[in-house]
Amino acid sequence: xxxxxxxxxxxxxxxxxxxxxxxxxxxxxxxxxxxxxxxxxxxxxxxxxxxxxxxxxxxxxxxxxxxxxxxxxxxxxxxxxxxxxxxxxxxxxxxxxxxxxxxxxxxxxxxxxxxxxxxxxxxxxxxxxxxxxxxxxxxxxxxxxxxxxxxxxxxxxxxxxxxxxxxxxxxxxxxxxxxxxxxxxxxxxxxxxxxxxxxxxxxxxxxxxxxxxxxxxxxxxxxxxxxxxxxxxxxxxxxxxxxxxxxxxxxxxxxxxxxxxxxxx
Length: 265
Fold this sequence. Notes:
Number of helices: 11
Radius of gyration: 19 Å
Strand order of the largest sheet: 1-2-3-4-6-7
Largest sheet: 6 strands, antiparallel, barrel
Mean pLDDT: 89
Strand content: 15-25%
Oligomer: single chain
Helix content: 25-40%
């Protein structure tokens, strides 16, 4: 069976999800922190169980691929952390991911990542491109993995992802031991060459997930190296961008003008 993208994998993932994703590719990494608040009451648990059975959660069911990699805060290479991505492919050129600080049921949502192909990235304004990072090194180095799926399938997935770009925003900094989602959202970046990612962070991840980034690197050696847009990974040229909370709301003043946003369908 030849699989060329995540949509093709949907014929395979429902069959092997229990065996691979949950047995081998999940529930082996705990959250960084215990969130503030009291334990759920028996009534809350009953309501949650009932809702789980009765309600349709179509948007969540589309997040069918698990990717594990690493980020750092744009402007601070030393602030690095592991990131667990649960990915939905919207079309051939666009993906969206929810990022957690672990892969257990109590893991916290750290943020989101939007992933686009080179085709869509080329349409972005120059200043916007500076907020995005490439995935070429993460794929070629073997540090980006899809735990639990067959390696041959993972390789085909990586052949697709190697030329993509990501815009990543972390909203809950549990790596800083914050027990609530406080502080500014932060723009994150990906690594671009050897020696940047802390080796102990990588080794701990590999051991815990039962993967070998070194072997993955060998397996992906024949994947062609893409041409990386020079406007991506702007931090490499000293062009740093980061979010701040600002008391001026001019960016929201002219949105919608009191009209309801229009849906495409």
